[in-house]
């Protein structure tokens, strides 16, 4: 069953929650026993948040939402792979979620590791290497444009990931095309707690 709100309304709901968080006025909605009981057999989240696994980037906290509000997928450096794409497509095609947020953050360790690997030529071993290889195209975009700061690269990586998501998933691209879903890139500022919109497709 799809949610009844539009992509723009879903984004505004997240913006309002983040503003409360930044101001120190979080309401911590939908976190009680009654809400828990209501969700035993059903869920209708209004957004998918695909973010970095960093411990400082807890989506439900920074957007001041609760149980059943957001469908969260996390990998180090918000790196796309087949399981992530399957999870995001599930959010759109099965849960009817009108918004996908790609959420990066300042001082991302995965982006930093990628920058260092490109500078030194010393690649990490095993599965961390896979993360670095997947982030490398975003960092190369930054370097080609003369942006060498980690936080600039974080913004570019959020934008590039959102774009690659649409290129990789015909299901999500079709939902954006017909207006039922939007995909946005967001950069989170650790010092102030603010989530900054850096790209959008289909937000209108």
UniProtKB/TrEMBL annotation:
Residues binding Zn(2+): 52, 54, 105, 108
Pfam families: Pro_CA
GO BP of this protein: carbon utilization
Record flagged with keyword Plastid: no
Enzyme class per UniProt: lyase
Tagged with keyword Transmembrane helix: no
EC number(s) reported in the record: 4.2.1.1
Gene3D superfamilies in the record: Carbonic anhydrase
InterPro entries listed in its UniProt record: Carbonic_anhydrase, Carbonic_anhydrase_CS, Carbonic_anhydrase_sf
MF GO annotations: carbonate dehydratase activity; zinc ion binding
Keywords: Lyase, Metal-binding, Zinc
Cofactor(s), by name: Zn(2+)
Catalyzed reactions per annotation: hydrogencarbonate + H(+) = CO2 + H2O
Bound cofactor: record note: Binds 1 zinc ion per subunit.
Function, in words: Catalyzes the reversible hydration of carbon dioxide to form bicarbonate.
Family, as annotated: Belongs to the beta-class carbonic anhydrase family.
Protein name: carbonic anhydrase
Organism whose genome encodes this protein: Pseudarthrobacter enclensis
Lineage: Bacteria, Bacillati, Actinomycetota, Actinomycetes, Micrococcales
